[in-house]
Amino acid sequence: MTSTADPVEAATQAGDCDIALGEPSLLARVVPAMPRLRWAQSTWAGVEPLLAPTLGRHYVLTTACGVFGGLMSEYVFGYLIAHERRILERFASQRDGRWDTTAPGTLFDKRVGLLGVGSIGAALARTAKHFGMHVSGYTRGSEGCADVDKYFHGRAALRDFARDLDYLVCAMPNTGETRRLVDRALLDALPRHAVLVNPSRGSIVDEAAVVEALRAGRLAAAVLDVFDQEPLPPDHAFWQTPNVVITGHTAALSFPRDITAVFLDNYGRLLRGEPLRCRVDFERGY
Amino acid sequence: MTSTADPVEAATQAGDCDIALGEPSLLARVVPAMPRLRWAQSTWAGVEPLLAPTLGRHYVLTTACGVFGGLMSEYVFGYLIAHERRILERFASQRDGRWDTTAPGTLFDKRVGLLGVGSIGAALARTAKHFGMHVSGYTRGSEGCADVDKYFHGRAALRDFARDLDYLVCAMPNTGETRRLVDRALLDALPRHAVLVNPSRGSIVDEAAVVEALRAGRLAAAVLDVFDQEPLPPDHAFWQTPNVVITGHTAALSFPRDITAVFLDNYGRLLRGEPLRCRVDFERGY
Fold this sequence. Notes:
The structure is a homodimer.
Chain A: H1 7-14, E1 19-22, H2 24-30, E2 39-42, E3 60-62, H3 69-85, H4 87-95, E4 111-115, H5 119-130, E5 134-139, E6 150-153, H6 158-162, E7 167-170, H7 184-189, E8 195-198, H8 207-215, E9 221-224, E10 244-246, H9 256-272
């Protein structure tokens, strides 16, 4: 075992190691110097930095999947309830000394569409059902989640998927296929009262189209955790667009307790010669 | 059937009616003029106005119990998540143009204490378990809810009940026994990082003690929907107390769809000669 704060130095020291645990952006710097690497465990859900074709693929890469479902549920449903109950607006009333009796809405009987139903999407679907919502799922073809009421597959089905949603939630990895999936056409297909929530990857959303839809009143609100450029540049239109909530890439942080559990589980599997969980398909991109 | 906007006029016209459906505050005005009244269905969960000893008790009174659990869950857990994720503070950062990456907390593994485990408390317990929380319940003696991990009974147990809570949530009716249950001693027994949530009845809480605890930093925050006097008077200390959220008695409104279902269910029971659901014990007060 080797420990140093500098990743390049770590790579030099780690040349003989066959197992690595770390953030994808740092792992990407040491992987080329680790010819004996058998397995790398990412501490994040997304592993884009390790997918560059110039990097070696001589090892098994596993993501920290399965640990973010709970955090993502708290994020998404916290902001969905905040929207229904006007938590931000009601607090503004309070600041003005006003007894605000505006009736709140409810999640019950509302419709949420999940763009992607992997481990995070499945956790979101479960919480949505807990609150009595109708759940639609858009996937490549899988239909494995019992909490999804209706599935939609392929871009041709996107308009039907979007047509009657109250909430559109992105729960997809960043791949060529998901890039700009939330574009002007998809936003136009949503009802005007719909809310977009993106806690997954900035690349999924056409940011200019979101700004335009919000300004034109064709989208009620957008809750955005991730962006094309982070930190969001000070002159970005989102800062001045009405009904945007910006949460600074904090939706689901990696807590050591969770990541340790994932690592130990996979380490046990490696020792026993069993297949590792959450293995990345380098070609597919997740 | 009789229909008029004025309750006293309604009472005159309704003298012969044996069934009534309405808000307790209005029913209290017509009940004395309805000697043939067999059954009154309240459209609210609380029925205090009908408990006055001067009013007749010659009829069966049923509350709108069982319909507010979902709404109360959305209210309570919306504000619990808002606290963990700093939704209000993060939005203030955004208003200032700041990319706020402050790490959020999580409900997972946190401890919630329910003052009262009736139909609303049970719904709250179920949502708490969904988010992976530990649930304590304070009741008169009943232990019927499987989602409560640990029960506490009687005032002597209140300090133990409160000792390690992250959240204290009131889910009790207004009776002599619940009056000022949340007093200085109970607030002192809570950890300093605890949050008080009261969506049930203002009388349960000693408001001056809450103000004092918040100002002294012995309580982290209070989310209050109900108050001794409503609307909250403009000169009330809560308006100027830090870390208070005031929600104007909107936690769980009576939606016609829900109340109609309760009324029809009980009406069917009445016709079939079965016991009505959610019958009030006039002596007990709920």
